[in-house]
Structure formats: C-alpha cells, structure tokens
Design goal:
324 residues; alpha/beta; globular
Length: 324
Amino acid sequence: MKLWESYDRGLIHSATRLVVPPMATQSGDDGFPGARTVGHYTRLAANSGVGLLFTEHSYIVRQGKADPWQLGFETDEVVPYQRRLTEAVHKVHPGILFFAQISHTGVNTSEAVTGEELVSASVLAGEGGISRALTIPEIRELEGKFADAALRVKASGYDGVEIHSAHGYLLNQFYSPLTNDRHDEYGVDSIRNRTRFLIETVAAVRKAVGRDFPIAVRLGGSDYMEGGSTVEDGAAASALLEQAGVDLIDLSGGLCMYMRPGHREAGWFSDMSRAVKERVRTPVILTGGVRTPEEAEALLEEGAADFIGVGRAMLQNPAWGLHK
C-alpha cells in the first residue's frame, strides 16, 4: 500500500505517509508538558505505523495563549521539559518524525486567559472580547517571537517545527478577507499582502533554525464561507510558501476550522489539496474525515496529497492502520 511507502524529498524523510495531525490535549501545566502529555504522545507513536506526528499548537507568547492548559514555547525554561517529551517519543518510535506546532491565537482567546488585551489584523469581536489591530512594529516583533519559539523547538529535540496559520488564529486572521479590513502592506487588497505576515514569519523562523531544520505550515487555505478565502487563494498562498522555502504544506480549513460545512466524505479538503498540488512540488498533507486505511490509500493513489492525516480514528485506536 502507498500509505506504508516511505517519503524522501528535501528535508522530509518519513517512513510512511501516515500523519497524526495536531490535536489539543489541554494537558499543559502553565505551558509545560507533564506526565499526561508524555503518555499521550508516546501512545500515539508506539506501534502505530505513523511516519509524522505533530504536537498540539503551543503559544509563542502569553498574549496568544488559547486556554489555561495550553502548552507553550514562550521561554527557555520549557526546553528541558519538552526534551523529556521528545526523548520519550523517539525512544518508543526511533524512526518517527516529531514536529511541534507553534501559534498565536489573535482574537480567539480572552483577557482572562492571557492577562493582556486582544490583538488581531483588525478590530474584531470574538467570544472573549474585542481586539485591536496590530501595528506594523508589533507585527515585526511577533515575527521575532515565532522565531524565538522555533529555536526552542529545535533545542528541545524535535525533528521540525510547524507554523499554525489555520483555524481562525492570528496568521489566518490576516489571511482571511472576513477578518482583515486593513489597507496597508498587510491588508486585504492582495493575496501577497494577506500572506505577508506569514511569509515574513517563515523567513524569520528559517533564519533562526537554519537551512537543515524542516519548517511546515498548517495553512487554512479556504474558509469555505461566502466572502472568505477560497480554494484558489489556498493554491496561490501555497505557491508563495514554496517560494519562501517551506518544506511541508499541511492543509486545513480557515475560519471553518478543521471541518467543512456540509461535507462528511473522506478527505473533505481534497478539492483544495488537488488545487495546491497543481501549483507546487512541496509535499502536501491532507486531513479530514479519513476513517479507514482504504480511504487513505485511495486519496494517495488518486494524487490528492503526499501524506494523509488521521486524527480522531488514531486517538481511538493508535494501531488503526496496522492490518496492512
């Protein structure tokens, strides 16, 4: 089966095409991973056939923290705790690629969680309050914070880092026309402007981690909503990411989160992944609705993606695909 074939291109060397995507455990203790976090990820890694495993999203600064139990990469103090996690995962599955995902939630948090005012691309009303628009100097400062966090990811023993630009979080708020009403160089007037914060963040992260450390981007390529970002936007943004030197494009939804309204078929973002693959050579991950190894295999055989992400089914049974 293609699902069990290796992938070896550029900086991505994976034993299989099966991916466990980021899924929140809410197991952090003031940003630090503990025994429950380690148990969760070692369970997913051991005897699972997974080639690539992502952590849940971790905040880069407290201003962008999603909830009280979220993991973080805000300070150097977290590195030895994160190293225990990576060592445990690599011990149970020495060949696995283990990536950490880093994020800023933007307006999708509350002052009760962060202790700070909410920020975003624009003035937006969220469940936790109203954001103010970031200034350009603040955008540049946050790009540096992403880079600092990525360097801590590398120091922690991960095999790569993923920048979270999906599910309506901060970088995605700049990308979506529904949440960006700016008309400056980070504004809504072009796909290049809407992705500028993300592309500059990729450049800052690359400078920090070096040329030999893989960078993935989880791209919420389409909102699947009237007036929102489109599949065509996702393909254009992916082309810009490839030009920026990203090693892996991990596709998901934008403001619609990880679901696609009205769709329950396997690979419900496959229209977007196919459009992206027509534009780029960078490997692509497709996640959403895959319930069986046969469904994953069909999507790979059809060329819908290079990797298939399986979340809920793997949570229920980490040996999900091992009847090869």
